[in-house]
TrEMBL record:
Pfam families: DUF1091
Xref: InterPro entries: DUF1091, Endo/exonu/phosph_ase_sf
Domain of life of the native organism: Eukaryota
Signal peptide span: none
Gene3D superfamilies: Endonuclease/exonuclease/phosphatase (3.60.10.10)
Organism: Zophobas morio
Residue ranges crossing the lipid bilayer per the database entry: none
Protein name: Endonuclease/exonuclease/phosphatase domain-containing protein
Length: 222
């Protein structure tokens, strides 16, 4: 997803700002890269806490020029309802791990095997905040849960990298997912900036078994 491209190195040199930019764990992530802005005037010399996400050691301005500056900020996740004859959540916790990183941890038990797209389908609809309420947009689609993971649609595998999910089929069992936090690379290219709500409905035989609302903010400039 491309946003407004800006040459931060040029901007800071021309304006004489006493700021440098280094690899780090700025939660914009900009795909897989992390960054951090250090203000020299304040004497800040914080190092990277997320070197694994920026192995090339690229500067923020380099990443922005290559990828465009798009930031997905995860605001909140809410479990609206679930069918406890199919799935039961023992933990559903959205939390801020740091000032810049928010994520979801869940633990749940399934009571039926999920072996194909026919068993569970995911329906996603996107709602944008306009005025004081969320309005439904044209983004509305559904997909079988097995296809979602086998084809790694929308970076699905990156969302469950810290989990005991091994991919379809999913036998009935106890599962956990830690630090689930979508980044801007999971979004379609036409999402404008602003506040959004993703309505996530999981269906079994046409019946909703889980409904989640995911709130996020899309920014196109730092």
């Amino acid at each position: 997803m491309k946003g407004t491209k800006i040459n931060i190195e040029k901007e800071t040199k021309e304006k004489g700002d006493e700021k440098i930019l280094i690899g780090g764990d700025f939660n914009a992530r900009l795909g897989d890269k992390g960054t951090r802005i250090i203000d020299k005037e304040k004497g800040e010399k914080r190092g990277s806490k997320d070197k694994a996400n920026n192995k090339e050691g690229k500067m923020l301005w380099q990443i922005i020029e290559e990828m465009g500056c798009v930031v997905l900020q995860n605001d909140f996740a809410k479990l609206v309802r679930c069918d406890e004859s199919f799935i039961k959540f023992t933990s559903f916790k959205f939390y801020k791990k740091s000032r810049t990183f928010a994520a979801l941890n869940v633990t749940y038990t399934t009571f039926q095997d999920i072996t194909s797209d026919e068993h569970v389908r995911l329906k996603v609809s996107a709602w944008q905040l306009r005025g004081n309420e969320f309005k439904k947009t044209v983004v509305d689609f559904s997909m079988g849960i097995c296809t979602l993971y086998k084809a790694n649609k929308f970076g699905a595998l990156s969302l469950i990298k810290d989990s005991n999910l091994t991919g379809c089929p999913f036998p009935k069992d106890v599962y956990y997912i830690n630090d689930m936090a979508p980044t801007s690379d999971v979004l379609p290219p036409f999402f404008p900036e602003g506040k959004w709500m993703l309505q996530l409905n999981f269906f079994n035989n046409g019946k909703v078994i889980t409904e989640v609302q995911w709130m996020m903010t899309i920014l196109k400039q730092l």
